[in-house]
């Protein structure tokens, strides 16, 4: 964990004031364009249009439509975060510990860098072109294997389609983050465990996974937030046919800014709270997992 | 057949032959060191014994059982690594108890054995610490305890002391040897520090380019090196050229002085041969043996307990010798004429 | 060993299938605009569209400005924090992590509330104000990446010695930063810059909610109104992302080479 070290100004460098000017713009910028806007939302969520403190806005969140939007969002984010972690871990394990040729590892890491940033609108297009009604795979399945994907109830504009699409950036993100952690597992640990009679599974359960635990948890929280805040992909893919929290907020901002901005505040506030909870859980678990690192 | 039997072990990485026909038998309770320069294949042999590397050919057997095909986790071999390799997520006690837990022993049994092992390494209070809270020396002790806790049949140590600083290295060296003797465990110790190898071992294996150049007690290795490599690698050495007069009778001329060796010498009359001579067998002044060579002091290095002096010999060449420091006598002066003396028995004729 | 290799190949092969099919699908679709033949017709139509040229040009310009703003904000800060205020580190790390945690849509919502036409600083009211707001928003989005790469770069050089050496030669702060520090972390800055470019070029939510017609909203509009052009756009966007990541790799490798020779 981080420790706070205060450095005293050294006598050799008297122009301390000047270096404050070096960092001041950053803090001013962060204040104006990150902290204040967020605080504004948090405060706004507890105010009515007349400026009085109220819980009314938050109460409106409990309406069935908004509640269900949040619920779908949470499911979607959790599902893609967990699956992203799982599949990403398998791929990362394959390229680090699986004895695959080195160039392949580098190629996959580079591709992961690309794919994890290939989110948003174009990604949605790619999936429509692939799994849409006339998409590449849909046609392939119909003509070559006689499988009618859409006949069986599948639709790319659905929860499942969105989850599949999100995984396209979730998995590579996991690969990018967990690969260095896997490479940090020392060969000697495995060999020491083996020489002490441990099987491969015992080594993973008792040493490797506990060592990786903080990174795994951190990535899980990051992936959750990543999916939870993704709007562009969802809008480009589903229009607004699938009602997830960020899309509801998007519609609120677009349509009712003047009508009931405070419901918007409440939705945004709830989104912050959820990602914050994910991160707090992560921090707590991580602190427990990292007793041996402090 | 020996307790630990290594027969005709070979290992190639691709086209690169790293270990070439390595054969060694180790008795139960024996402490054997592998000594050799970096890259000569010590670790590779050790890892093949431990089961972490499959030999290209050859066999390893322990107590009559052929273990060549056995995976590492079924060999009952304890391993200690240069980098300690303690599990960072487990406390000292959990580390030491790891092998027992994996073997499915009961909690009480594990706790008892862990306490015993921590007592053995002299760290009984540190059981609840994490590895990062220990010094390097303490970590290596714990690693030793961890390796020994499941009562392995063989203990392998791969340069366990090289990551430590000099003082701890010496004390831990003695401690490893004491524990090894107490438990009577068959041990292979890899090092490239000759002092470690000579001081700790029952026998030393000097390795060179994947081959065991010589296997013998420290006394034999030091005093009767079998090859030029062993002679040069172990200890410091004077290499002197001499002219062979009569090979069969052992007559040679050393810096113009006729000398008769104990043994017959290889080679033919008129050839130049190399003789090796330890600095500590040469005496400043007469009285050190039957060979006396006149010369002049060329260099003086004061090393503390000993003074190393290099003398240019009149007949050509130079010889280094060690004398003990004595507080009431000043070191010799450079340029002063001296005689040096030695015994013909200390001259080693080296195979080319 | 071979068993493990087999599983690894299997994992990589399945992953490859999942990751390559959408790319193939998108490429395939983008070529089908003319019935019965593969052609680049969709690309031709898109590239010739003045709307495309205008929005794309705008987004590129905005991305470049974002990079400049990011460098101006992050390099001095990272430098002074390393050199002078290590105590500020946790605060900075917290701030630079926030954009990964707070959904972008929430941030832009905050902008709209704070900087609307009836506020003290009515940025959304004017063309300039809106652009500045968008620029700052993108700089916020890129903060985590920019800061991380620059800080990593600074860690590998001994900035204290470099600074003292420069000071002893009489250089002032601005000069030290521009002439001594920046060139030494240039590659890291470039990594951050390309990443920023990749993120900003097709960004949708900020632009759409601030009513700016940049490349992102243009793509969404196309997606709603055309069939094949969106795939062509996706291919273009993918190529840009790929180019950015490829350039990062290239420069990183180049820097390893040059430090190895030093
Ligand atoms: N996995 C491997 N693949 C290819 N070559 C290897 C491998 N492991 C070791 N080698 C090579 O085998 C040779 C012997 O290595 P080894 O580690 O046994 O040396 P060592 O005697 O232990 O040296 P050191 O004292 O430096 O530890 C070296 O040349 C090394 O490069
Ligand atoms: Mg070695």
Structure, described:
The complex is a heterotrimer of chains A (294), B (352) and C (262). By secondary structure, chain A is an all-alpha fold. Chain A has a single domain (63-293), classed as MetI-like fold (Orthogonal Bundle), CATH 1.10.3720. Helices cover 73% and strands 0% of the residues of chain A. Chain A is built from 12 helices and no strands. Chain A has helices spanning 16-44, 56-60, 64-97, 102-117, 121-131, 136-145, 159-183, 187-195, 200-228, 232-238, 245-256, 261-289. In chain A, helix 1 (16-44) crosses helix 12, helix 5 (121-131) packs parallel to helix 10 (232-238) and helix 11 (245-256) runs antiparallel to helix 12 (261-289). The termini of chain A are close together. By secondary structure, chain B is of the alpha+beta class. Chain B folds into 2 domains: 4-232, P-loop containing nucleotide triphosphate hydrolases (Rossmann fold, 3-Layer(aba) Sandwich), CATH 3.40.50; 236-349, OB fold (Dihydrolipoamide Acetyltransferase, E2P) (Beta Barrel), CATH 2.40.50. Chain B is 24% helix and 34% strand. Chain B has 8 helices and 20 strands. Chain B has helices spanning 42-50, 92-102, 107-120, 136-148, 166-183, 194-200, 218-223, 228-233; strands at residues 4-13, 16-26, 31-35, 57-62, 65-66, 77-80, 154-158, 186-191, 203-208, 211-216, 238-246, 251-254, 257-260, 272-277, 283-284, 291-302, 306-313, 318-324, 337-342, 348-349. Chain B has a 6-stranded mixed beta sheet with strand order 6-7-8-3-9-10, sandwiched between helices. In chain B, helix 2 crosses helix 3 (107-120), helix 2 runs parallel beside helix 4 (136-148) and helix 3 (107-120) packs across helix 4. The mean pLDDT of chain B is 90. Chain C is mainly alpha-helical. Chain C has 2 domains: 1-30; 40-258, MetI-like fold, CATH 1.10.3720.10. Chain C has 12 helices and no strands. Chain C has helices at 2-30, 41-48, 50-83, 89-101, 104-114, 127-156, 159-168, 173-184, 186-201, 205-209, 215-225, 229-261. In chain C, helix 3 (50-83) runs antiparallel to helix 9. At the A-C interface, helix 1, helix 3, helix 4, helix 5 and helix 7 of A face helix 1, helix 3, helix 4, helix 5 and helix 6 of C. The structure holds adenosine-5'-triphosphate and magnesium ion. Adenosine-5'-triphosphate (ATP) is lined by residues 13, 18, 36, 38-44, 192 of chain B.
């Amino acid at each position: 964990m981080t420790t706070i070290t205060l450095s005293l100004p050294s006598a050799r460098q008297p122009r301390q004031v000047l270096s404050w000017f070096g960092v001041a713009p950053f803090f001013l910028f962060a204040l104006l364009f990150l902290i204040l806007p967020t605080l504004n939302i948090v405060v706004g969520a507890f105010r009515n249009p007349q400026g009085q403190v109220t819980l009314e806005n938050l109460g409106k969140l409990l309406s069935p439509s908004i509640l269900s939007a949040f619920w779908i969002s949470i499911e979607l984010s959790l599902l893609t975060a967990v699956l992203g972690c799982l599949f990403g871990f398998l791929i990362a394990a394959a390229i680090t510990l699986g004895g695959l040729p080195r160039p392949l590892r580098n190629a996959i890491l580079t591709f992961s860098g690309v794919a994890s940033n290939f989110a948003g609108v174009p990604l949605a297009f790619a999936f429509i072109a692939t799994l849409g009604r006339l998409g590449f795979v849909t046609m392939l399945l119909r003509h070559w294997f006689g499988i009618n994907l859409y006949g069986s109830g599948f639709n790319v504009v659905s929860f499942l389609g969105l989850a599949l699409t999100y995984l396209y950036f979730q998995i590579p993100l996991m690969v990018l983050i967990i690969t260095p952690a896997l490479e940090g597992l020392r060969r000697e640990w495995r060999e020491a465990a083996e020489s002490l009679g441990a099987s491969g599974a015992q080594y993973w359960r008792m040493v490797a996974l506990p060592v990786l635990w903080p990174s795994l948890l951190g990535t899980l929280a990051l992936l959750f937030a990543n999916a939870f805040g993704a709007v562009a992909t969802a809008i480009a893919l589903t229009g607004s046919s699938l009602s997830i929290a960020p899309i509801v907020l998007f519609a609120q901002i677009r349509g009712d800014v003047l009508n009931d901005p405070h419901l918007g505040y409440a939705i945004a506030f709830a989104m912050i709270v959820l990602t914050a909870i994910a991160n707090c859980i992560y921090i707590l678990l991580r602190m427990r997992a990292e007793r041996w690192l402090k | 057949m020996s307790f630990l039997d290594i027969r005709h072990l070979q290992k190639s990485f691709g086209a690169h032959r790293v270990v070439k026909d390595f054969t060694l038998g180790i008795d139960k309770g024996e402490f054997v060191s592998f000594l050799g320069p970096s890259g000569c294949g010590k670790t590779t042999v050790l890892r093949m014994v431990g089961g972490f590397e499959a030999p290209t050919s050859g066999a390893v057997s322990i107590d009559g059982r052929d273990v060549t095909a056995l995976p590492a986790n079924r060999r009952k071999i304890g391993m200690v690594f240069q980098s300690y390799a303690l599990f960072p997520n487990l406390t000292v006690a959990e580390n030491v108890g790891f092998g027992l837990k994996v073997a499915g022993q009961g909690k009480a049994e594990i706790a008892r054995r862990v306490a015993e092992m921590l007592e053995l390494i002299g760290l009984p209070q540190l059981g609840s610490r994490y590895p990062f809270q220990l010094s390097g020396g303490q970590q290596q002790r714990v690693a030793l305890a961890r390796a020994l806790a499941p009562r392995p049949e063989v203990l392998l140590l791969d340069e366990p002391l090289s990551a430590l600083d000099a003082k701890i290295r010496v004390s831990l060296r003695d401690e490893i040897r004491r524990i090894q003797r107490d438990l009577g465990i068959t041990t292979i110790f890899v090092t490239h520090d000759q002092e470690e190898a000579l001081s700790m071992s029952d026998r030393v294996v000097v390795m060179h380019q994947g081959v065991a150049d010589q296997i013998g007690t420290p006394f034999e290795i030091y005093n009767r090196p079998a090859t030029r490599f062993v002679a040069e690698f172990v200890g410091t050495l004077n290499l002197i050229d001499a002219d062979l007069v009569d090979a069969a009778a052992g007559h040679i001329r050393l810096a113009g002085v006729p000398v008769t060796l104990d043994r017959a010498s290889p080679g033919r009359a008129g050839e130049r041969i190399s003789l090796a001579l330890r600095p500590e067998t040469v005496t400043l002044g007469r009285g050190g043996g039957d060979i006396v060579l006149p010369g002049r002091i060329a260099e003086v290095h004061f090393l503390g307990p000993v003074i190393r002096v290099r003398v240019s010999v009149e007949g050509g060449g130079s010889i280094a010798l060690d004398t003990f420091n004595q507080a009431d006598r000043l070191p010799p002066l450079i340029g002063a004429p001296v005689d040096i003396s030695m015994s013909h028995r200390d001259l080693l004729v080296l195979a080319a | 060993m071979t068993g493990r290799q087999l599983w690894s190949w299997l994992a990589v092969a399945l992953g490859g299938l999942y990751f390559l099919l959408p790319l193939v699908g998108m490429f395939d679709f983008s070529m089908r605009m003319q019935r019965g033949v593969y052609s680049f017709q969709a690309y031709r139509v898109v590239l010739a569209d003045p709307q495309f040229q205008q929005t794309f040009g705008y987004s590129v310009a905005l991305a470049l400005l974002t990079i400049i703003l990011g460098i101006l904000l992050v390099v001095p800060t990272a430098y002074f924090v390393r050199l002078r205020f290590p105590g500020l580190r946790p605060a900075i790390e917290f701030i630079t992590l926030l954009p990964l945690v707070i959904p972008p849509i929430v941030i832009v919502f905050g902008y709209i509330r704070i900087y609307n036409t009836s506020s003290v600083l009515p940025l959304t009211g004017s063309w300039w104000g809106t652009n500045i707001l968008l620029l700052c928003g993108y700089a916020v989005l890129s903060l985590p990446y920019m800061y991380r790469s620059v800080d990593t770069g600074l860690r590998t050089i001994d900035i204290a010695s470099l600074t003292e050496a420069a000071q002893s030669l009489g250089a002032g702060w601005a000069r030290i930063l521009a002439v001594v520090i920046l060139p030494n972390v240039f590659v890291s800055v470039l990594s951050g810059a390309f990443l920023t470019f990749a993120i900003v070029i097709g960004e949708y939510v900020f632009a759409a909610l601030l009513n700016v017609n940049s490349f992102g909203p243009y793509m969404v509009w196309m997606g709603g109104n055309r069939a094949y052009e969106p795939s062509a756009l996706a291919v273009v966007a993918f190529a840009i992302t790929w180019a950015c990541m490829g350039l990062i790799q290239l420069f990183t490798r180049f820097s390893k080479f040059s430090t190895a020779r030093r």
